[in-house]
């Protein structure tokens, strides 16, 4: 016979807005609702804490035997802003909540290959020179409504062609793959460059690395605390969504444990990886235009591998080391010292990052196999040093995390603004938001921030009759059905209704100049 508990679970809890996911987008959606006095909402979160891909863990130990807190997910505030430019909202909150961070100095770098330290930093400068050419080429494709192509094609035409020069491949990886977690072949030329501009030219080219020992998600907890109390019954942690039934009049969300929520609206902030892996069932099945957009965009994998040693055998005054494998592009290429002033001085901690295909490979391996590979690379980089065994070693497996399935999205070659708009668009009362729905800032924390806010404002506008989302309106997003999608996007269609409210040509200190 059913117990009282299971009988209770069969009765759906009612709420006005069900916010699915307690990452950046979910929390900012809830905040936007609260700002318009829509307080009847529930936030449903898989994990035991809010933050999502803002995720930290304890690692190694300091001189007193206490562990360090390291970030497995988002680590940098990217594109800060200056007094005369717009400011990245994540940077605004990082300052407000005094999140400890240090400027990442990308010019503090030593380059290596399999024979040890070899200076090929001139290749980074050469890539930079090509950049000024290919970013213009990408601009013409956009304004003249030409066909998009791969970033690889754009680079080649601008005179950058690394061919079999592995140092040049490493330089290219440092300048591109490291940021987007995707290769030049996989990345859109137009939207790759537009995305770069919108973060680094609109705000600034600075990236600050968060070292806060409370964890980076303290920033989000501080934002949440302005409208959610500690232990607020509207925050449902450790609660896993299994299916979402939507209609023109509302949304019913059913959890893995059989409990359910009936809402007038829902905002699904699950990652593109979650949407692509069919872990949540939608009823009815999502329309073709939605499924096409989910299938089209790309979920990358970005894996940081952390090592602590009993000594700092590398130069602690240099922040980065770039390694060019003689045979495999992207094989343990970027190393970062945390045993450095401003980070965790004297911690003897180093981490190396892999992305894309290499990240998939490494994430399928056990720790011992990866550790052996990593140490073999260090022995090549430091041929005159006896590399000790690490005293602590860890890395996450983002590609298999059931609440993320990858790290962050990237814009693939040869698609349009309208196809991406369909990723953003609501299906009846079911709305979508997250890093991946950001046209301007996909892959970034601030992308998730703006998109969560947008969805919250759109729904609050519907509910209250007062629309504060002046740029792109309230209620339904623009969506493009069969027959409405074309091969290219007209310049006039680059607007807030298609998610591009800021000119992709925005240049520092000149309002949207072209
Ligand atoms: C390794 C890595 C490095 C990164 N580095 C940076 C960086 O340096 N700077 C930067 O700006 N950005 C970085 N990012 C990107 C940034 O972390 C994301 O853009 C942002 O955190 C995404 O927020 P979101 O709200 O869209 O998604 P999420 O944070 O994924 O939030 C979605 C939430 O939904 C929950 N969820 C999923 N499935 C279910 C389910 N079935 N039931 C209930 N809940 C569910 C998840 O637990 C999660 O909390 C990085 C990401 C990764 C992974």
Give a verbal description of the structure.
Helix content is 30%, strand content 19%. The longest helix has 22 residues, at 122-143. The chain has a domain at 4-53 and 214-295 and 413-498: FAD/NAD(P)-binding domain (3-Layer(bba) Sandwich). The chain is an alpha/beta fold and 514 residues long. The protein is globular, with a radius of gyration of 23 Å. The chain binds flavin-adenine dinucleotide. Residues 21-26, 44-47, 52-54, 73-76, 78, 240-241, 269-271, 274, 280, 302, 398, 403-404, 407-408, 434-435, 443-445, 447-448 line the site of flavin-adenine dinucleotide.
Q: Please tell me how large the radius of gyration is.
A: 23 Å
User: Separation of termini?
Assistant: 70 Å
Q: Roughly what is the average pLDDT, rounded to an integer?
A: 95
CATH superfamily grouping of the domain at 4-53 and 214-295 and 413-498: FAD/NAD(P)-binding domain
CATH class categorisation of the domain at 4-53 and 214-295 and 413-498: Alpha Beta
Share in β-strands: 15-25%
CATH architecture of the domain at 4-53 and 214-295 and 413-498: 3-Layer(bba) Sandwich
- What kind of sheet is the major sheet? 8 strands, mixed
| CATH fold topology of the domain at 4-53 and 214-295 and 413-498 | FAD/NAD(P)-binding domain
Global morphology: globular
Question: Ions, cofactors, ligands: which are bound?
Answer: flavin-adenine dinucleotide
- Number of separate helices: 14
Helical residue percent band: 25-40%
The low-confidence runs, each spanning 5 or more residues with pLDDT under 50, are 1-7
Structural class: alpha/beta
